[in-house]
Write a structure and sequence with these properties.
Elements (H helix, E strand, L loop, with lengths): L9 H12 L1 E6 L4 E5 L2 H27 L3 H5 L4 H10 L2 H10 L2 H20 L34 H8 L14 E2 L2 H9 L35 E6 L9 E10 L3 E8 L4 E7 L7 E3 L3 E7 L6 E5 L1 E4 L2 E6 L2 E4 L1 E11 L2 E12 L2 E7 L2 E6 L5 H10 L5 H8 L7 E7 L4 E4 L17 E2 L18 E3 L5 E4 L29 H11 L6 H8 L7 H13 L3 H6 L1 H9 L9 H13 L9 H4 L2 H10 L3 H19 L6 H4 E3 L17 E2 L13 E5 L6 E7 L2 E6 L3 E6 L17 H6 L3 E2 L4 H6 L1 E5 L5
Helix pairs in contact: 1-6, 2-6, 4-7, 9-10, 13-19, 16-19
Length: 756
């Protein structure tokens, strides 16, 4: 029987206490934990303890997602997201990977679980929503630190719901059954370390405010899954040392800033995704890495020809039939009247799980979302000290969602568009489902690392990737599209990338100061396309429209197209530009949606001059209705506020907040601040965008500056809850304390886990 972590067995407690003594945590003046241990495993133990101490709720949420158990904690809105995750992620395979992992990884996995469980033991006041005990194999369910770590081939949860909510149509022998959880079931689940509490159970609603952020009640997620990564060669920099800029756009407070140091060669600094034990984006004393996301095709949908036989479902393959296999599982979810369960029968072909149905054909998914190899690769890159070391780790080729921007202290800069890349017949359109009944569409191995789209030490001396096409990542030194199959890089161009290329190519003598200034550049390049079309429309407008828009147009014509808190033009442009999006083409695929530049051009082409001016009039009227005046500065309505530190934050126009001059990066601004009017507010409040940002210089001694959203702590009572807020809003970075003497000189607290 599994003992709850908050009631560790005597043997487990003794082991964890011994591990804790091998770890020293020093919190610096910003609250950043610098974690020191003799072994890598000791550091992992300390890291997990520190993460949970800072924000256990976010650690638990990420594992509830990967384990397909969010609905039990947060409600029915997550039901078919959980079904999707249970179809894709096989916990039995993760357990098997744990058993077969090499000794060094086995030690890290054990330390991971011990660190969390020791925290729960030492903090009985922390009440998990579901996961009362962490197992070592949990970490093998979450091997990618991306904000969207699951590749579905384009299938959406609504399609999964449509397919799996109709068992009778699938020929299943029983109707859809939903039943309340019995006390016996609760005991069985508790024995597995899964706490099931009803609607009124202790901790069940601990992270749910009265009014959720999202109208559908879901927890906040990232709308624009974007990031910026820059690398500069030494000849572009004043110090002649390479520089790296790390700027992920994710939900606020998505990662924690840490340093990990062991006597086994680990010395990594950067951001860790809650619940993971490796630095996802960061640097060590010799090299740094920034991950951006892309549309490099790593998962494919297969259209299967299925039919029903007496023995069950079968599908065609190479002129014969093969049986569709099944796997039963149960998804639990919370409703007002208590905890309910949904039995599901998952369907599978040899390609993978059946996710949905389109045009009468079932869609099965071929993917590589989690693996032991992926976790090994993520760990090994943090310990690389040379370009060859880093490439050796990358050659594992198990990272399925990340591009990599790289720089090191030997003068190298590099970029890889993806990492794991299946080899396929390029005559097929892999952005759409392919025929699953023929062998010609099967994957044919995996591309070698040097075969994927990449650039090493470009002659231009700069690299940028802003979730855009890699074929413009380094000016004239960019990879050539014709050398690569289309499925490797179907990404389109966006306005951030255009802005970044102009800023990096047009300057030399970079310093960390100038790099951060450019990284926080407020230019909105989308309006280079949008505003001329509006001005042309205004010039030909009828007299009444011309008169009504005379002052707003004059403001926009004088505007330098840079967002600012004191700018009325920013308000007008963003409100009008947002309304104009309705004229953009409806993309059929993610690849089409990524071509932001072309989509805006079509948006203009598909709107009439009268519609463009009408949308500006509508935006002005809307501002007048909401705020009593259309002539309102952007910072008056766009605010940064942090009140509770909970996963679902609350917002209040009457409470203190900071004016923000940033906007969404959808308009081409490099930094991002996605803001929304909340159900209970008139003003807009930021929910995602810039999070952990770092600028790093790889000279004889590494030099770095960072900033995080708000502050390091999620506790409103902590001095580090919002001590970086004003700096974050204004792009003012803090110096990183990387070397021991610097950490000691600015230490705020020093302790072993459990002694804080």
């Amino acid at each position: 029987m599994v003992v709850s972590a908050q009631g560790l067995s005597a043997a487990d407690r003794q082991r964890c206490e011994a591990e804790a003594k091998e770890v020293t945590i020093i919190r610096d003046k910003w609250g950043v934990p610098h974690i020191y241990g003799k072994t890598d495993a000791a550091v992992v133990f300390g890291l997990m303890y520190a993460e949970c101490l800072e924000d256990f709720s976010r650690v638990e949420k990420n594992y509830l997602e990967m384990l397909g158990r969010q609905a039990a904690a947060y409600g029915e809105n997550y039901l078919y997201t959980d079904v999707m995750m249970r179809l894709i992620y096989d916990s039995a395979q993760a357990r098997a990977d744990y058993e077969r992992s090499p000794a060094w990884m086995h030690q890290l996995l054990n330390a991971f679980a011990d660190g969390v469980n020791y925290f729960l033991y030492k903090h009985p006041g922390t009440k998990p929503l579901q996961l009362t005990h962490f197992e070592p194999w949990f970490a093998l369910m979450f091997t990618d630190g991306s904000v969207s770590a699951t590749s579905t081939g384009g299938v959406k949860p609504d399609e999964i719901r449509s397919f799996y909510s109709q068992p009778a149509a699938l020929g299943m022998s029983h109707p859809r059954r939903v039943h309340a959880i019995s006390e016996v079931e609760k005991m069985v689940l508790a024995d597995r370390g899964i706490g099931i509490s009803g609607n009124s159970g202790e901790g069940a609603d601990r992270e749910r405010p009265e009014t959720p952020v999202a109208p559908d009640g879901r927890l906040p997620d990232e709308d624009e899954r974007g990031s910026n990564g820059f690398a500069l060669a030494g000849f572009r920099c004043a110090s002649e040392a390479t520089e790296l800029y790390i700027n992920p756009h994710v939900p606020f407070y998505f990662r924690m800033e840490v340093q990990l140091v062991s006597e086994e060669g680990l010395n990594a600094y950067g951001a860790v995704t809650w619940g993971q034990f490796f630095v996802y984006q960061g640097f060590n004393a010799h090299c740094g890495w920034m991950h951006t996301s892309s549309l490099a095709d790593v998962a494919d949908l297969y259209a299967e020809k299925v039919k029903r036989q007496d023995s069950g479902w079968v599908y065609e393959y190479e002129g014969q039939t093969k049986p569709v296999t099944t796997k039963a599982f149960t998804v639990y979810y919370k409703k007002e009247n208590g905890m309910l369960s949904l039995p599901v029968t998952g369907f599978y072909t040899h390609h993978g799980p059946v996710m949905a149905s389109r045009d009468g054909r079932w869609l099965s998914l071929r993917e590589y979302n989690r693996s032991l190899n992926a976790l090994e690769e993520a760990w090994l890159i943090t310990k690389a000290s040379t370009f060859d070391d880093y490439k050796k780790a990358m050659e594992i080729r198990a990272n399925t969602t990340n591009n990599t921007v790289y720089a090191d202290d030997q003068g190298n800069i590099a970029y890889w568009h993806g990492n794991f890349m299946p080899r396929r017949d390029s005559s097929y359109d892999w952005s759409q489902p392919v025929d699953g009944s023929i062998a010609a569409t099967e994957w044919k191995g995996v591309h070698e690392l040097d075969e994927i789209v990449h650039v090493y030490n470009p002659a231009t001396g700069w690299i940028q990737n802003c979730n855009s096409t890699p074929y413009s990542l380094s000016g004239n030194s960019s990879p050539e599209r014709k050398k690569y199959p289309a499925y490797m890089a179907p990404d389109g161009e966006n306005f951030r990338a255009i802005n970044a290329a102009q800023l990096l190519s047009g300057a030399n003598n970079f310093t960390l100061d100038s790099l951060t200034v450019k990284g926080y550049d407020h230019y909105l390049s989308a309006f280079d396309v949008l505003l001329p079309a509006l001005f042309d429309a205004y010039a030909s407008a009828v007299d009444s429209v011309h008169k009504a828009l005379q002052e707003p147009i004059a403001i926009l014509q004088k505007w330098d197209r840079r967002s600012a808190a004191r700018s009325v033009a920013t308000t007008l442009a963003v409100e009008w530009g947002t309304r104009m999006a309705q004229y953009a083409p409806r993309p059929r695929t993610s690849e089409e949606a990524s071509n932001a530049v072309e989509n805006v051009r079509v948006e203009i082409a598909q709107s009439t001059p009268q519609q463009r001016t009408a949308e500006l009039l509508a935006a002005i009227n809307d501002l007048r209705q909401r705020y009593g005046n259309w002539k309102i500065e952007w910072g008056e309505i766009c605010r940064y506020q942090r009140l509770t530190g909970k996963i679902v934050e609350t917002y209040d126009d009457r409470r203190q907040s900071f004016p923000v001059g940033l906007v969404s990066s959808a308009f081409g601004e490099l930094p991002s601040f996605v803001s929304r009017v909340m159900p209970t507010t008139k003003k807009r409040y930021g929910v995602s965008g810039n999070s952990f940002i770092a600028a790093v210089e790889f000279g004889k001694r590494v030099k770095a500056r960072t900033i995080v959203t708000g502050g390091e702590s999620s506790d409103p009572a902590s001095p580090h809850f919002s001590d970086q807020a004003a700096m974050y809003v204004n792009g003012q970075f803090k110096d990183v304390l990387f070397y021991p003497e610097d950490v000691q000189g600015h230490a705020e607290k020093k302790y072993h886990p459990g002694e804080e």
